[in-house]
Amino acid sequence: MKKYLAGTLIILSVLGFSLRESTAQSNKKPNIIIILVDDLGWGDVGYHGGNIPTPNIDRLAKQGVELNRFYTAAVCSPTRAGLLTGRYPDRFGLRKTVIPPWSDFGVSTDEVFLPEMLKAAGYKNRAILGKWHLGHVSLKYHPLNRGFTHFYGHLNGAIDYFTHKREGELDWHNDFNSSYDVGYSTDLIADEAIKNIRSYHKESPFFLYIAFNAPHGPLQAKEDDLKRFGYDATKPSFPNGGKEGDEGRGNTKQQTYAAMVSNLDANIGRILKTLNDLKIDQNTIVLFQSDNGYAPNEAGSSGILRGSKFTQWEGGVRAPAIIRWPQVFKGGWKSEQVTGFVDVFPTILAAADVMEKPKNPLDGINVLPVLKQKQSFINRNLFLGDGVLVNRNWKILEKLDQNSGMKLKSDVLFQIDRDVSEKNDVKDQYTSTYQLLKKDLAPFNAIKATAEVANFDVGKKGFVAPKEWKVEK
Predict the structure, then answer these.
(1) Could you report the per-residue pLDDT of 345-362, keeping only the tens digit for each?
(2) Can you give the residue ranges of every domain in the chain?
(3) Whole-number percent of the chain with pLDDT over 90
(4) Boundaries of each Sulfatase N-terminal domain copy (predicted)?
């Protein structure tokens, strides 16, 4: 009898430990991985009917929630800033263009970045891997002074994929130091992500912001990837007009772009496999998104959407996006919730159970209730900049002087839930809705910043890049 009782106690003890361990796992804060890709168009992914095979991204879409109405800014620096602050980039002067190499602009240090908030919530390791593009002339703008504990990648955009140079100088860094790592930048970023995941998961929950520069120009691919799309080394490469990025050009832009996207997809697959191998995928949030639509004249596709990068047509601001968190919400469905880049900040904070309130009012909203299917949708207007507002049913585009990329003759209104390709202006049919949206737009158009990034070419003439893009002041 005593042996029986002793055995029973051992079994109960083991079961109790297992239950406590299971409970601890379910109560543990999630790991957070944001995979931001650069200039990937709506029609460049397989799950949107694209011609380039993207099996790993497609698999993620099947496993997670497809965010069918996810919006960004029309160019990349504003999207990155809004994602990391939860605020419209208009509030700190970064809506109309990116931060070019010759600019001294940086996102105001009055803005609180996402990793700063996650630090207080127990996220010891908070890394940015890849493209920064939010200020590079002063240490106060450096990622390691904006809440990140590790930086591996480049400060500027449009670097050479092989030499890692911009304006003739090496722009590849490991924390504050220059990195002389050799390799294709997409591969190196994924390598570092995998290395960090394997190291970080042993401690507290981690935050990785993986900002691939692919498939942004210059169009460059590895020869092995090019060969899978018919590359013939005996034929000439497409001309690039003497721009940076001479190595890795295929026979055509289309071939090179396809090889770049395919390589990007494979590297995303490597990262996801690492999560699965380490058995941490169930409680890891993975958000995948592009920063804007495809760049014109660089072989991408907006699919069924109108327009491209630099415009507020859907093809410029409606990005492929997926979120997966198996432990908390089921996947395999498509959300029509209007959401976007400024919602990442509050949604991630809610998922990480961060109780502290950011000091600046947020423009983004927490969309977790919709993702958990506890709420069917959240009514909201989302400001897309330059006199453009979108909600569940409607999208208004005002004719503004600064809206030259849109080439509008007058205001237009689309019933966007039924007219995704923006073919039919219904302003005259729905005059009351049009007037109401005009009124809703007014306070957004009135947003003024104390400082604004200058036009892209200001300061370019005569500019000489600093040695290895060292940030010292």
Answers:
(1) 999 999 999 999 999 999
(2) 29-380
(3) 89
(4) 30-354
Residue 167 has pLDDT above 80, yes or no: yes
- 466: which residues sit within 8 A by CB, 6+ positions away? 169
Catalytic entry in 48, 76, 142, 201: 76
* Percent helix, strand and coil across the chain, each to the nearest 5: 30, 15, 55
- The CATH number of the structural domain formed by 29-380 is 3.40.720.10
What is the per-residue pLDDT across 20-44, written as a single tens digit (0 to 9) for each?
A: 443 344 459 999 999 999 999 999 9
* pLDDT tens digits, 46-62: 999 999 999 999 999 99
Indicate if 201 belongs to the active site: no
Rounded Cα gap, residues 112 and 219, in angstroms = 34
Is 216 a catalytic site residue? no
**Is the bond preceding 218 in cis, omega lying within 30 degrees of 0?**
yes
Q: Which residues contact 448 (CB under 8 A, 6 or more apart)?
A: none
Residue 400 token pair:
């503004």
| Whole-angstrom distance, CA of residue 289 vs CA of residue 342 | 13
HEC string of 281-332 equals CCCEEEEEEECCCCCCCCCCCCCCCCCCCCCCCHHHHECCEEEECCCCCCCC
> What phi-psi label fits residue 242: left (phi over 0), alpha (psi between -120 and 50 degrees) or beta?
left
Q: What's this model's pTM, rounded to 2 decimal places?
A: 0.94
pLDDT (average), residues 109-134? 97
User: Where are the extended beta strands (E) located within 293-441?
Assistant: 321-324, 333-335, 339-340, 382-385, 388-390, 395-397, 412-414
Average per-residue pLDDT for the chain: 93
Overall size of the chain counted in residues: 473
Cα–Cα distances (Å) from 189 to 47, 86, 186, 270, 468, in that order, read 24, 25, 5, 11, 19
Q: In degrees to the nearest 10, what's the CA dihedral of 94, 95, 99, 100?
A: -150
In contact, 275 and 64? CB cutoff 8 Å: no
What is the Cα–Cα distance from 56 to 58, expressed in whole angstroms? 5
Give the position of tokens 């996947």. 331
Provide the percentage of residues in the chain whose pLDDT is more than 70. 93
